[in-house]
Design goal:
Blueprint lengths: L1 E4 L6 E8 L2 E14 L4 E13 L6 E5 L1 H6 L6 E6 L2 E6 L9 E4 L5 E4 L1 H12 L2 H9 L4 H15 L7 H7 L10 H9 L3 H19 L7 E12 L19 E10 L5 E8 L8 H16 L10 E5 L6 H9 L3 E5 L5 H10 L9 E2 L4 E12 L13 E11 L1 H33 L4 H5 L7 H7 E3 L5 E3 L1 H8 L4 E6 L5 H10 L1 H13 L13 H26 L2 H6 L8 H9 L2 E5 L2 E4 L4 H10 L8 E2 L30
Helix pairs in contact: 2-19, 3-4, 3-7, 4-17, 7-8, 11-13, 16-17
């Protein structure tokens, strides 16, 4: 049996021309480049290499001899141009009855695919894939962006320079490699409006998947962080309160996250000199616009019932008023800077040691006071407030005696140690100079410890240094006390649980900065900033989703049955373990390596199913692919293997 191999030809197109009213069709090779000014692909050159018989658009091709000399395999075939592309038919040798088998050149690839499978499943659960496809489907940008996200999660670096070799060894949604210029061009196409549309589509997909009940009674954590940068060409970085202690300009990130599922619903970036407390008003406006767009085409006026859970950084009378006027619920930790809050705490502080108020589960004393909060329901800028509207609020007061004692021990140690150092210095001076006057004693300075002498000590009538007990009591008065203010959570225990759950957002930012190493922007200009922001946010969402599911799995009965101790694994190590699972692609199918019992448990811990043994996919015609100005060559299109997931 003779074996023939179909030649791999360069990109070909059909050209046509008219002469004396008659149309002629021919086959051409071509080259092109992307024109940045015209923002479209420009053809550089083209060369005719053959004609189509009978002057028809489709039919047998007669190649020029010089082209056949370049691809001598063409001597074994008759080549036809059809609607589906090129069709190769072997030339039969009539004298010898040969049975011919045509073998199309196939790429046999062995790639890393186990972790990629888990990432795509996470994208599906978070409805990220649906949102990417809805917003960035032109030129297959959703597949390319998804592939960049795979890189960020697996390589744990925001430096895109190493993407090209990574893409060659991993099974990605977009199978072709992208060089630095193509990645840069792709990120430049993403702007602030695209990010807002992404969240609209993501929340719309969540609505379709889980229904309107998903947004009812939802507790959302609100938190922010700062990312430092060395760049002087970005518009958002400013000097502000840097949460990492860097003496650099920064951009602030704000995240809104569903506390029950760990799914982030919204993120925004704002100037680095804007403090947390003033961001709430604009955030509520953004969310109002967001959910009004989500409602469009859903035949449902989606009015999410959100309860915002915030820390002390967002405590202000203005934010309290904004949440009430926008009809949002809240569990807000108070800084106790407002007089009305302090007055309530002062009234309850003596009862906080009552054993009847001790909560065994949380190990704290708890008390709740119901108050009537008066506010202006129609505030007008420049006019005095009219506090005629009323709303019932619950002020939950918590006292942790251990925190109080620890604070007391630290303060007493520092003060008494400072007193000891001071007296030793006084004795040393007296031994040299003799008796000291009160003025001379006051002039003595013991360096860094002097602050404790100045704040917490006094001199008695005999000129002796004494600790001021009233000053200590004043400082320790509110130690160990936490206050949560809520309009809809009447139970102190439930309010405390809701507040403790907001740590998921803090852990998300920890993942953003530490696990994924996004503690720097690695962006030099505004053109690619929002593209980077979107990719980094989605990568963080995926890792948060995995971390949330691991914690949930560790507490389940299934975890003990699987006999795997995940506390020995970091999240990154779980991902790296799954990344060792290889996938083999050949012809029109691909299959994973055997999945061992341990790896099945790791997939389960991440909250996704393990890969099936075999998947089939169809190869699409090149003519169906829209030309992409950000690609140098689209003639070798890789199939969308993850369409089911993305």
């Amino acid at each position: 049996m003779k074996t023939l191999e179909i030649p791999k030809l360069p990109g070909l197109k059909v050209g046509s021309s008219k002469y004396k009213g008659k149309e002629y069709f021919y086959i051409q090779t071509y080259t092109h480049h992307y024109d940045k000014e015209k923002k479209r692909s420009i053809r550089d050159s083209q060369k005719t290499v053959g004609t189509i018989k009978d002057n028809c658009k489709y039919g047998e091709i007669v190649f020029k001899q010089e082209f056949i000399d370049l691809y001598p395999e063409l001597n074994n075939f008759r080549v036809f141009k059809t609607e589906q592309g090129l069709e190769f038919k072997p030339i039969q040798d009539e004298e010898e009855e040969l049975y011919l088998k045509i073998v199309k050149e196939s790429k046999f690839k062995k790639l890393h695919g186990g972790a990629n499978f888990a990432i795509n499943k996470a994208m599906a659960e978070l409805c990220v894939g649906d949102a990417l496809k809805a917003v960035f489907n032109k030129y297959n940008r959703h597949l390319k962006i998804a592939s960049l996200i795979h890189y960020l999660v697996l390589k744990q670096t925001p430096v895109m320079h190493y993407y090209q070799p990574f893409a060659k060894s991993h099974f990605l949604p977009w199978g072709k490699t992208l060089n630095d210029g193509q990645i840069n061009a792709l990120l430049k196409t993403i702007d602030h409006n695209d990010i807002m549309n992404f969240f609209v589509e993501q929340n719309r997909a969540l609505y379709r998947k889980y229904g309107s009940d998903f947004f009812k009674g939802m507790f959302v954590a609100l938190d922010s962080t700062s990312i430092s940068t060395y760049s002087n060409k970005l518009s958002l970085p400013e000097y502000g309160y840097n949460k990492d202690g860097d003496k650099l300009k920064q951009v602030n990130y704000l995240m809104v996250c569903n506390q029950a599922t760990g799914i982030p619903l919204f993120i925004k970036a704002y100037k680095g000199n804007v403090i947390d407390v003033v961001t709430v008003n604009n955030l509520l406006s953004d969310l109002k616009i967001l959910f009004s767009k989500v409602s469009k085409n859903l035949h449902d006026d989606l009015q999410p019932e959100l309860t915002f859970v915030t820390d002390r950084g967002y405590d202000s009378n203005e934010n309290l008023l904004n949440l009430i006027l926008n009809e949002h619920h809240f569990v807000m930790r108070s800084k106790m800077s407002s007089k009305w809050v302090k007055d309530i705490v002062d009234e309850a502080i003596h009862d906080l040691n009552d054993p009847n108020k001790y909560n065994l589960f949380f190990g704290q004393y708890m008390d709740t006071k119901k108050v009537v909060y008066k506010y202006d329901d129609y505030p007008i800028l420049g006019k005095n407030r009219r506090y005629k509207a009323e709303k019932e609020l619950y002020v939950h007061i918590y006292f942790d005696k251990k925190v109080y004692r620890d604070s007391e021990d630290v303060l007493l140690f520092n003060v008494t140690n400072a007193c000891k150092t001071y007296k030793e210095k006084v004795s040393e001076i007296i031994s040299k100079k003799g008796k000291l006057s009160l003025e001379e004693k006051l002039a003595i300075n013991i360096g860094q410890q002097q602050i404790f002498i100045d704040k917490y000590c006094v001199f008695d009538g005999n000129g002796e240094l004494k600790i001021n007990n009233e000053k200590l009591k004043e400082v320790l008065k509110y130690k160990g006390i936490m206050v949560l203010i809520s309009d809809n959570v009447a139970d102190a225990e439930y309010a405390y649980f809701a507040y403790s759950q907001r740590r998921k957002v803090e852990s998300s930012f920890q993942i953003l900065k530490s696990t994924l190493n996004f503690n720097r922007l690695y962006v030099s200009n505004d053109q690619v900033f929002y593209g980077r922001l979107l990719c980094q946010f989605i990568a963080t969402s995926i890792m948060t989703f995995f971390a949330y599911n691991i914690r949930k799995y560790e507490q389940s009965v299934e975890s003990s049955q699987d006999k795997i101790k995940l506390d020995n694994y970091s999240l990154c190590r779980v991902i790296e373990e799954l990344d060792t699972i290889m996938i083999t692609s050949f012809k029109n199918r691909f299959y994973f390596d055997e999945i061992s019992g341990k790896n099945i448990s790791l997939y389960k811990a991440l909250g996704v199913s393990s890969p099936q043994s075999l998947y089939k996919y169809e190869e699409g015609p090149i003519e169906d692919i829209e030309e992409d100005p950000y690609e140098n060559n689209l003639n070798d299109i890789d199939m969308n293997l993850f369409d089911e997931v993305l």
